[in-house]
Design goal:
The complex is a heterodimer of chains A (253) and B (288). Chain A is mostly helical. Chain A has ten helices and no strands. The longest helix of chain A has 38 residues. Chain B is built from seven helices and ten strands. The longest helix of chain B is centred in the C-terminal third of the chain and has 21 residues. The chains are: A mainly alpha (253), B alpha/beta (288). Chain A: Keywords: Cell membrane, Membrane, Transmembrane, Transmembrane helix, Transport. Chain A: It is found in: Cell membrane.
Chain lengths: 253, 288
């Protein structure tokens, strides 16, 4: 068995052990029902919630806004990283900001964003995108820094414009690093959107989780948390598979 | 095999004897200076003055000690860099920091795009050329066949050996049907046997395409085997101190390394180069 397969088996065993342990603790009454439902119950409630369709609107709103935040973060992050790659002095100026960026409590700006963008979804999307964008910038820059000079010379020999060089050489070359940024951006976008909905919103999964939390409605809260987890894992698995294909082509898997 | 002719030229900057107008590439009084990084305004005289004519269809190699500016010379001819002084022209037109049409470059390092298949890598060379799809396919198929890559067309560079990856880069240059092919130590990273075989392939494509080839190499035997003429450069600032005409027939291959004359050419190159190489490593030659 390969080390990777062995690690995967251990990971599954650990997960099954943790969920099984939680199931036993819940069923035996060591964790009371008011605190947490047993895992099998959470899954059943999730299926019921999805089948009933009562939260479909909230789920769609959150996923749509998270997707928007993710796309904005990717487009803005990759474009800005390419710009910074060319403008060394601007990059030197901003490097310390990137290093300390995640120490900034982004949600504290929510009231200001409401003043700026109104009470709609825009402030939430803005927060999601702002949380995700720096992960994209930092990882893209990391990839761009590692482009072999000879590939850039080849671009010049083939008379590529700056735009075509970025599009056809720099970004494909940096793709594995950009994908790492994308994986982080998925998580940050979801955290940003759900966190913002949690604080001040009238809809979305974050709002529903917050509402259920306030009302001790475990039959709604935990299934929604599980759903977020599943969506995040599914997207990350897809990106990881894509990354694996890219790396395999380059002989790096 | 025909006899070898080595011209006895003086050890001074040399101008080739080709008639005015016959040269495809011309360098006149070319100098290159770099600003030394980290030291305000201090310049390094890297190259020159160089006067050189490349004749249309010839195979010209340049040898010289490490750091003498061989690759800088190639970059000037390629339009990847601009001369501090002097003129570089290709087919009579000045080269100003822009790759002229009809010029292809193959570098020492692996320049294949790892995210593209062999076929896509080769097709990449045709991006700047507007040709109809049939002609495009014909050129790609020809380049694949000429470089022995047909059965690897859908492989990725990571699945190929170093020599095959270099052949992909040569094929990418070939599809553009260049009139001047610049090779910057293209076999530097390969083992000796592969280098000899790659040399045969380069000679073969030189004959088939009729292009002028300008080869930069640190290997004297490689230059002696491949070139019609060999320019020997001094230590920095690199100048041409000798030009050796090999007199090889056009249909030569790597078997000429067995010829007596091959040893004579290599010996002549080393005689011209030894003192310069000593200078380059900071040990000026002392006469015994």
């Amino acid at each position: 068995m390969t080390p990777k397969k062995r690690a995967a088996l251990w990971r599954i065993a650990l997960l099954v052990g943790a969920v099984g342990g939680l199931e036993i603790l819940c069923l035996s009454g060591h964790i009371d029902r008011l605190t947490m439902q047993p895992p099998h119950r959470i899954v059943m409630d999730l299926v019921a919630l999805l089948a009933g369709g009562e939260l479909n609107g909230a789920i769609a709103k959150t996923l749509r806004n998270a997707a928007l935040a993710f796309v904005i973060a990717m487009v803005a992050g990759v474009s800005f990283a390419v710009l910074l790659h060319y403008l060394r002095s601007l990059r030197d100026m901003l490097d310390p900001v990137f290093a300390t960026y995640y120490a900034i409590p982004m949600f504290a700006f929510y009231p200001l964003l409401i003043v700026l963008f109104g009470l709609g979804d825009t402030p939430q999307i803005f927060i999601g995108a702002m949380l995700a964008v720096v992960a994209v910038i930092v990882n893209t820059l990391n990839g761009l820094d590692r482009i072999p000079r000879v590939l850039l010379k080849t671009a010049r020999v083939n008379q590529l414009s700056a735009w075509d060089t970025a599009r056809l050489v720099m970004l494909p070359c940096a793709a594995p690093h950009i994908l790492t940024g994308a994986k982080l951006a998925v998580a940050y976008s979801l955290i940003g959107i759900i966190g913002a909905e949690f604080i001040m919103s009238t809809g979305g999964m974050g709002y529903e989780i917050s509402f259920a939390y306030m009302n001790f409605d475990n039959a709604k809260m935990y299934p929604l948390i599980l759903l977020i987890l599943l969506v995040s894992i599914a997207i990350n698995t897809l990106l990881a598979k894509w990354e694996k294909i890219l790396m395999a082509r380059r002989g790096l898997s | 095999m025909t006899s070898i002719m080595t011209t006895s030229k003086p050890i001074t900057p040399t101008r080739t004897p080709s008639a005015p107008g016959a040269a495809q590439v011309s360098l006149r009084g070319v100098d290159k200076e770099f600003i030394r990084p980290g030291r305000s305004g201090e310049t390094v005289h890297a190259l020159g003055p160089i006067d050189l004519d490349l004749r249309r269809g010839e195979f010209f190699a340049v040898v010289g000690p490490s750091g003498c500016g061989k690759s800088t010379l190639l970059e000037l001819v390629a339009g990847l860099s601009t001369a501090t002084r002097g003129d570089v022209t290709f087919e009579g037109k000045p080269i100003h920091n822009r790759i002229p049409d009809g010029v292809g470059v193959v570098f020492q390092e692996d320049a294949s795009f790892p995210w593209l298949s062999v076929r896509e890598n080769i097709a990449f060379g045709l991006r700047r050329i507007k040709i109809d799809p049939k002609e495009r396919e014909r050129r790609i198929e020809n380049a694949l066949a000429m470089m022995g890559l047909t059965s690897f067309a859908h492989s990725f560079p990571a699945q190929l050996s170093g020599g095959m990856r270099q052949r992909v880069c040569i094929a990418r240059t070939l599809v553009t049907e260049p009139r001047l092919i610049l090779l910057d130590e293209p076999f530097g990273a390969l083992d000796q046997q592969t280098r000899l075989l790659m040399g045969d392939e380069v000679l073969n494509l030189w004959r088939k395409t009729g292009a002028t080839v300008f080869l930069i190499t640190h290997a004297l035997d490689e230059a002696a085997m491949l070139a019609d003429r060999i320019g020997v450069m001094s230590a920095r600032p690199g100048r041409l101190i000798d030009i050796v005409e090999t007199g090889w027939p056009r249909d030569r291959d790597s078997r000429i390394v067995q010829e007596e004359a091959f040893g004579a050419i290599t010996a002549r190159l080393w005689r011209s180069l030894r003192a310069e190489s000593m200078k380059a490593i900071g040990k000026p030659e002392v006469e015994p």
